[in-house]
Amino acid sequence: MTTPVFRIEGLHVEVEGSEILKGVDLTVLPGEVHALMGPNGSGKSTLANTLLGNPDYQVTAGRVLFKGEDITDWPTDVRGKAGLFLAFQYPEEIPGVPVVQFLRQALGARKGMDDLSVLETRMAILEWMKKLEMDPSFGDRYLNEGFSGGEKKRNEILQMAILEPDMAVLDETDSGLDIDALRVVARGVQQVRSERPQLGVLLITHYQRILDELTPDRVHILMDGRIVDSGGPELARKLEEEGYDAWR
Q1: For labelling alongside 215, which of 95, 125, 185, 234 has CA 20 to 30 A away?
Q2: Is residue 30 in a domain?
Q3: 63 with 12: CB under 8 angstroms?
């Protein structure tokens, strides 16, 4: 049998003493795209933060497995180095650190190498920036400082392309994007997948529209800290037509 690239088993999570996730189960096989949808307050951001290893989110039961290893207690940097990637809904600004420098340092940490070629790294970054329809001067700007919403999201996909993860969690990557920017980001994800066909993707989203551009293998609906339904792409279309009331 194929070993899942990512598995969440019976995950219960508390934040400041309140239980938010109440037993989440989810399995992603290599190469699959899974969409996780849910209304505000359903626990989507809590799940993303827990998968990142945010210490403010306490796992009280269950576990998270990555390529067969239990990473529930792993710190954030160790998860990243191992090949788990999280694209933030609200990426942080880092004044004084150019995008190219940040990516070179992150890639060095990911690969365990301190002597990556500056020229080769820059050329790889410029190649991906072209695919993502980003101006080459973008690489010399400070990370996310003064970026538009679309630029921040494209930068997240650029990071995913350069870091070559085995599993990517995209936390509301479509948030705040107009339809043109959304299509560029979705195409970027597809290009990364075409070059890394074993890449697993968990796409956390409110909306059907990105799923028109990035067709998922499985769709899951999260309500009140639990996955209440799972299915194929048709489940997202049903949700678009009927709203969340059908599952309340």
Answers
A1: 125
A2: yes
A3: no
